[in-house]
């Protein structure tokens, strides 16, 4: 039987979609997940801290101190949304120099379910590192979701200046769809 109440980490980075991560918390809980938000420093400027506080969701941004106990259960699934150019390239290269990147690198290394919503402009996507990074992550089993259409496996860049509008129109169901089979809530059990 599929176990319920599994742990989902939502990793937020420094791009406009992070303004709406609180909506993913609500949706994830509705779908039967226990949810935590892992934020990069750059994500902080976008997060709706009041909404997240009202939801009483753990928000972690740094490693624990060595002499303290673990704060969260291990994730069963990790959703990186939005995924910035910076974080996605570092993840593909195996760089774990922030807490968020450690979580992401571990998810990939431990073969946990990982969903990525790349959120980059055309100019950044033209950089030679970008296409190989996405290919590496795809080959490693990550599920890439297009931020404009929700299509799986599509990762086209955003037209410059459209980030806020794409973020407002984004449906978090798209990001959670690749992990929907992991809880029993939708089966009505
Ligand atoms: C207004 C604004 C919008 C940004 N939008 C994006 C974006 O859509 N995609 C992206 O990759 N970086 C974007 N950036 C740049 C990232 O925030 C920056 O590269 C940051 O270092 C990313 O750090 P992180 O990956 O640790 O979150 C934006 C920056 C600003 C100030």
UniProtKB/TrEMBL annotation:
* A molecular-function term among this protein's GO annotations: catalytic activity
Residue ranges of every copy of the Flavoprotein domain listed in the record? 10-119
Q: Which Pfam family is one of those matched by this entry?
A: Flavoprotein
Q: Which domain of life is it from?
A: Bacteria
Protein name in UniProt: Flavoprotein
What species does this protein belong to? Phytoactinopolyspora mesophila
């Amino acid at each position: 039987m599929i176990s319920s109440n599994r742990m989902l980490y939502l990793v937020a980075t420094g791009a406009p979609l992070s303004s709406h991560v609180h909506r993913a918390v609500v949706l994830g809980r509705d779908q039967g997940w226990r949810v935590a938000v892992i934020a990069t420093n750059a994500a902080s400027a976008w997060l709706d801290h009041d909404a997240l506080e009202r939801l009483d969701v753990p928000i972690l941004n740094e490693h624990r101190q060595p002499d303290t106990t673990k704060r969260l259960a291990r994730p069963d699934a990790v959703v990186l949304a939005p995924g910035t150019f910076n974080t996605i390239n570092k993840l593909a290269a195996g760089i774990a120099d922030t807490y968020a990147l450690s979580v992401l690198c571990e998810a990939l290394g431990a073969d946990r379910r990982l969903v990525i919503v790349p959120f980059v402009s055309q100019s950044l996507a033209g950089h030679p590192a970008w296409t190989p990074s996405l290919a590496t992550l795809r080959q490693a089993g990550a599920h890439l979701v297009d931020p404009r259409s929700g299509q799986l496996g599509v990762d086209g860049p955003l037209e410059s200046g459209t980030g806020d509008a794409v973020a407002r129109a984004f449906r978090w169901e798209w990001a959670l769809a690749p992990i929907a089979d992991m809880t029993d809530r939708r089966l009505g059990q």
